[in-house]
């Protein structure tokens, strides 16, 4: 079984805590037993950083924990420069203790980086989704990986409902007409529908999937869900969705499919050419989960042929999406950069969640159990 | 009191009905007592007309009532050409009996046109909203004006919820980044919010407003409504919205305002410079009702200054919106052409509703009471 680096460290941190004079004195030393080097990788906000005091998830505002960390003698390095052998992140890999990053601008934590990171103990995701980490390598190295479970589930579920409606209503070409000086109602209306009466299936009905189903209920749709587990009958009845044990029996019934699963070795490439060919012609797909659940080219081909009537999501492989990513140019897409989980409200919640976990880490306390992705060398169940 | 042209006509129609041989013989004569000249003004679908068999609301498919009308000996002229003294519609004004049009491509029925239309008896709106008709002139001339009440209320309410989310999430600049090859999460996220916890007020809580409130309920917002009448307590409790008797007390509380009133002399220009100045800074406004409820320039100024944080709707003044309409070019708009009520599902419903009213008109029967806008020289209550 893997060494528990974090446990040993927490013990050291714990024994050195409670002495604020000492902490203040060691603020600039970075080598005292209790002092940690914490690196945060976020997106740059530049001119936008000052536009909203609650815009916490960017490099400039850095979750608003700098003063708190530094007042306890810790070092806090923040950067958006995360790719390639000469990036800012790479410089700090050999001696950082904690790496914080987000799904919106993820620091990819490979087995190679983990090997180099001799002091690394803790990987925190400010948000939800830790697939940017090689979780097996992290488990083997005895690291702890945790995220702020729940911090942006409402944000993502709301965004999914927006994307369903955007596709069902054919909003994007309508708005495009406005900005290009055009007016052609027919060019929009010939494939604009009500959501009412349509069959919506969610692949995965965890926290986000359930919140989506609850919000869909008043729309009078036919709601289906596929998951490893059936909900308890009371919840299922309250949500008004029908369990489908066999994914491939559910999918061809759906007018609209929403992806609500983590990216794992089981779900990677799940929507490939063959599976897409078996969907209802003109199906609408919303995917705010992870892009690699889809076969990139199969989605392009489906949108081009009309087999997929519309595709919307905010997740890309890789991120940031390169300028020549084919999803930027395929027809009937309503894509955005990765934003659904980084609303201002979500940022306030995940900044607070990261601060709480750091505080517990310094004190040698456990995190809330639902936050762990890797603990004591073991992956959380959904990643196994 | 105004002459009841329609009643006399219905009587003639009634006495000549039930004789299909005679009807078939008079099919191309157009002058027999029971034969009517019906003109439909719709938008052209061109290449889109054949793309969907249920795309009924365009000139090409013309509500799918041509065969039915002609088999009864009526003449059915359909056009999209509706403006100016030499347009196709103008040619038929002197002798048409029935004019059917839609809010999406409205035939404007002015007092002058009513004066010229000596045979006109019935004005039907395929959809909801008859403000394209000079209702007072229509009432004075003894015409009947009716619409397919309820035919697209679900369609419009769903679309309003989409627009609320599009504004709250700052979707449009996000999508714009995708198509321009850009990636700047911060440029979207600094003003993207959850809908949860925000205060949403609807100005008007008729059918559409209530359907919107019902769909908003699971989003855990603070829901307010202003209307002439308070809902009965049971419905209010079920919807979870609070009645605000005084509009100007409600508006400054709202993060999001949705307009759900007909255009009348009372509501025209209601959102002028002064009223907009009193709203919460950065307020989001959704208006699928009618554009003339807003002062056009005051909306442009509000969006430019940031007093209005976002404006979305599908209604314009006039329609089609000219290429230089300033709402096309103002910042933070998420506009489309007039499409929310012309989904394929709505088209099926309003085509059926128009056919039913024509059938009743030919038979001299009353329409469903909620469909009347002008009956027996009297305006429906919401237009008074």
From TrEMBL, chains A, B:
Subcellular location field: Mitochondrion
**Which GO BP terms sit in this record?**
formate catabolic process
Q: Which key words tag this protein in UniProt?
A: Mitochondrion, NAD, Oxidoreductase
Record site feature (Important for catalytic activity), residues: 290, 338
Residues covered by the D-isomer specific 2-hydroxyacid dehydrogenase NAD-binding domain: 162-340
Listed binding positions for substrate are 128, 152
Which cellular components does GO assign to this protein? chloroplast; mitochondrion
Record field: catalytic activity: formate + NAD(+) = CO2 + NADH
Where are the coiled-coil regions?
none
Mind telling me which InterPro entries this protein's record contains? D-isomer_2_OHA_DH_cat_dom, D-isomer_DH_CS, D-isomer_DH_CS1, D-isomer_DH_NAD-bd, FDH_NAD-dep, NAD(P)-bd_dom_sf
Give the top-level enzyme category.
oxidoreductase
Fetch the SUPFAM superfamilies from UniProt: Formate/glycerate dehydrogenase catalytic domain-like, NAD(P)-binding Rossmann-fold domains
- D-isomer specific 2-hydroxyacid dehydrogenase catalytic domain location: 69-366
Sample GO molecular function, one term: oxidoreductase activity, acting on the CH-OH group of donors, NAD or NADP as acceptor
Superkingdom, natural source: Eukaryota
Residues involved in NAD(+) binding? 207-208, 227, 262-266, 288, 314, 338-341
Keyword NAD part of the UniProt annotation: yes
E.C. numbers = 1.17.1.9
Q: Which Pfam families match?
A: 2-Hacid_dh, 2-Hacid_dh_C
> What quaternary arrangement does the UniProt entry report?
Homodimer.
- PANTHER family linked: FORMATE DEHYDROGENASE 1
Family per record: Belongs to the D-isomer specific 2-hydroxyacid dehydrogenase family. FDH subfamily.
| Name of this protein | Formate dehydrogenase, mitochondrial
